[in-house]
Write a structure and sequence with these properties.
The chain is of the alpha/beta class and 239 residues long. It is 38% helix and 25% strand. An 8-stranded mixed beta sheet has the order 3-2-1-4-5-8-6-7. Its EC number is 2.1.1.222, 2.1.1.64.
Length: 239
Amino acid sequence: MTTTANVDPAELAKFSDLAHRWWDKESEFRPLHEINPLRLAWIDSIAPLAGKQVLDVGCGGGILADAMARKGAQVLGIDLATKSLKVAQLHALEAQTPQVSYREISAEALAQEQPAGFDTVTCMEMLEHVPNPDSIVRACAELVRPGGWVFFSTINRNAKAFAFAILGAEYVLRLLPRGTHEYARLIRPSELAQSCRGAGLEIAHTRGLEHNPLTGRYWLSQNTSVNYLVAAQRLPSNV
């Protein structure tokens, strides 16, 4: 295992304890399964996945990594949660997904090992779980080739996001385990944009992810007040 200072042991433990439930679509990870087709289609519409070298940072149990491989990409998923990676590897074997592999390594360490090694990098639902999200953004920028795409998804930091993403999702609707998110670690779009610019990434597309708790439907929109996704391109000069 490659060590890194940019990790919260409590966050690793939180997801490790739930690792065996990653592929249970009725478990705590149900929302990830339900939004996966939306984020997969959005990524593929901007940076077609077929035939590309793709990295999924903070891959967890491999829900997105597996789906991108099935779109024809050669995918590497990385994480620092050992149990989650073992679940991802087992699922790849059981589902016979040959174009996906997994490694227990940090984004920062992989950036030193394979700079500009990928056509596309995804980092979804992870930035709000690490002590230094700027470091992850920089590593993603270093990992993607000039002209390549980096995709992030995270949660805005405001009163509405607190009400919907924490109180509503974790305590009222119980879509997620209590304590999944900490308000202080949520990231405003302006803050993520600043991190991207500092890393040599130019944001080209932003979408909000909305949810109707009555119907259970998720959809993408222009409303980034709670959950949102960002597509950023590495500038050619950032070599």
